[in-house]
Amino acid sequence: MLGGAASREPGRAGQALTGSPVNFAADLASIVLGGLAAGTVLFVVSVGLSVTMGLMGFVNLAHGAFAMFGGYIIVLAMNSAHFGFAAALLLGFVGTAALSVVLEQFLYRRLYRAGELDQVLFTIGLIFIFIAATTIVVGPGSQALQLPPALSGQLDLGFIQYRTYSIFLIVVGFAIAFGIWLTFERTRIGAQIRATVDNRRMAESLGINVDRLFTITFAFGSGMAAIGGGLGAEFLGLDPQYALKYLVYFLIAVSVGGLGSVVGVYYAALLLGVLDFVLKLYLPKGGTIFIYALTILMLLLRPQGLFGRKEL
Amino acid sequence: MNAAGDPTSETRGAEASLAKRTENPAVRILTRRHRLRWWEALPWITAIVSYFAFPDYLGFGAELLVTILFALSLDLALGYAGIITLGHAAFFGAGAYTVGMLAYYGIWSEPITSLALAALAAAVIGALSGLVLLRTKGLTLLMLTLCTMALLEQAANMGHDYTGGFDGLPSLAIAPVFGVFEFNPLYADTQFLYALGVLLICFAFVRTLVYSSFGQSLTGIRENVLRMHAIGSPVRRRLVICYTISAALAGIAGGLWAQTNAYVNLSTLGLDRAATVLIVLILGGYGRLYGAFVGAVVYLALEHFLAQIYPTAWQLGLGLVLVVIALFARNGILGLAEVLWRRWRDSLSRRKRAERTAS
Hints:
The complex is a heterodimer.
Chain A lengths: L2 H11 L10 H33 L6 H17 L5 H22 L9 H22 L11 H4 L1 E3 L4 E3 H23 L1 H11 L1 H6 L4 H27 L5 H4 L1 H11 L4 H21 L6 H13 L11
Antiparallel strand pairs in A: 1-2
Chain B lengths: L11 H11 L2 H8 L9 H12 L4 H23 L8 H16 L6 H23 L5 H20 L1 H4 L25 H23 L1 H11 L1 H6 L4 H27 L9 H14 L6 H19 L1 H18 L3 H27 L1
Helix pairs in contact in B: 4-9, 4-12, 4-13, 4-14, 5-6, 5-7, 5-12, 6-12, 9-12, 10-12, 13-14, 13-16, 14-15
């Protein structure tokens, strides 16, 4: 399902693949790096979904639509308004977070205590609205992201030459993961989030304002999704179907990692990225079957995910 | 163990005398609700009338009937047993590929037995996956059903030497129904009547099932699992059986789709199809037998006429309708109709009462 990555990335990263046994280590490194870059994008998009699902148990299938919305803001700001990459990312973050707060206050809020079916329907409906609106406003075509020159070249890592952008993604992704982890472990709001994920009723009765907490994390998570959409636009592509195309991957990353667990999503997303990369390269037709099989196996053995906690 | 009150186990006469004696509204409703009403003939009369009235739309009609059957199968799992699944197309595709591969390789092309085989194949997958999946609930269940479907889709993609991969298996040669009525690709009258017959049989089966004590226990499980456990109902087994039956019916729908379209491809297994059937059912109203009918007619008619002209507007409208249904009208069109009907009836009786007191 990570189709864009399959059709584009191997070709670009594959430049290091020679096939000869001598360069096996270099091949392996380039595969792992390519997979890690894709996984990093997956993480940045999914981390918000994991936390909001963990907090409220809200099945938000429209999370990918926020990533798409943000991706469009970022790409259009760069292409049409000549923003710098960093400025565009910031704009995407703020714009998407603002939109998500509006939607959360007026629509999502009504369905917190509804059943999963209603939440699924509502968010599928939102996806359709986002897809149609994007098609009407921007057009059905794919948007290309023009990387800044500093990021578009090759980087000499000593043993191989590799795309600067992929290395940049991996480093930035690690920094983001570390930052969010620190926030979770070392700040007051992080402690509140962890408490609420573990036991919402208890947290509420201790005086934690769960609704407000949810609004904040929802906005932040949507903003992160927007940044992920922008960072990944270069090799995942960006077209109106984005919200639906990668939905299964976001969900797998979240449920395998464990709801509400930042570390879990980080590992799950990286694993998924590398696996997908390898399978698409060596088994281009139907190789992703192993991802689904592993996910099913994993969820049967540990329904709470790799790092999730068992429900009490 | 019978879960809910079981009217069928008692004799009719006792029921009637009980109803007469108590005049309890609850008893009256329970003893009468499985009886056939006059309006239940309407869908079938409409189908026969449309057969003669719209000869140009028989292909569309056959597609509609298949969709109704598929939505009906989902209704059994989702509407009655409360199993929230995003992967019901897995069984539709299993049925379609069973019929498709049997016909394409010239192994077996007799339509009715092919459908039985399709049902069997889908039921086997349903039972196997149900045994493991139905231990979970909530998001995990949602993910597992989704992944099972994706697994089958990729398996079909991977076995492209046998399944035709992405392109599927074209121009299937299906033998005539009963050895007499041939499937004509240009004029779909056989397809329509054949699909109508299959739907009628399946519907009669589902209707009997949901009003049986088994069906009642499914509703009980949906409403309150804990209580069903407490009264000793074998919850897991009931759910697996229901899921298997639902899968078999979806397999029949898929097989029927392959037969009426004379091809099969990966679209039968995709998320799009699973989401569409979910929307169809919710639009009509789930947990009520006729929701599948209303939803399929409304959805397909709108899609057929709107989506060709304004595909984007269609998608936008569909999204808005879904949001509105989720927020305000959780029981779909039939639920809305019921509310309006009840309100009208109440206002009528209130007016009568007011007149009586006035006089």
